[in-house]
Amino acid sequence: MNIEIIDRITKEGHLDREWVEMILEALEVGISVEEIKEFLVKKGSPALKAE
Predict the structure, then answer these.
(1) Higher model confidence: residue 5 or residue 36?
(2) Are the beta carbons of 48 and 40 closer than 8 angstroms?
(3) Residue-by-residue DSSP string for 1-51
(4) Residue 20: what pLDDT?
(5) Residue-wise over 2-31: b if at least 16 C-beta within 10 A, else e?
(6) 17: closest CA among 35, 34, 5, 29?
(7) Closest CA to 17 of 37, 32, 3
(8) Under a CB-based contact definition with an 8 Å cutoff, are residues 25 and 17 in contact?
(9) CB burial class (10 A; 0-12, 13-18, 19+) of residue 40?
(10) What is the spatial distance between Cα 43 and Cα 13, in angstroms, rounded to a whole number?
(11) Which bin fits 16, alpha (ψ -120 to 50), beta or left (φ > 0)?
């Protein structure tokens, strides 16, 4: 995983580094963006309730 990308995403977007790392790892193992969204919605992620 590219640490520079993670650093840029977390600094510029003010995102939690652990969340960014977890999502990038999920994508690397073949979990789709849609599956990640579904998981977060099921778990009640405040970030996705506005969608």
Answers:
(1) 36
(2) yes
(3) --HHHHHHHHHHS---HHHHHHHHHHHHTT--HHHHHHHHHHTT-HHHHT-
(4) 79
(5) eeeeeeebbeeeeeeeeebeebeeeeeeee
(6) 5
(7) 3
(8) no
(9) middle
(10) 22
(11) beta
Q: Which two structure tokens, joined as six digits, stand for 43?
A: 């778990």
pLDDT digits (tens, 9 = 90+) for 5-34: 777 776 766 677 788 788 889 999 999 999
Question: Which two three-digit tokens encode residue 16?
Answer: 């939690």
- pLDDT bracket for residue 44 (50, 70, 90): confident
Residue 44 is encoded by which pair of tokens? 């009640």
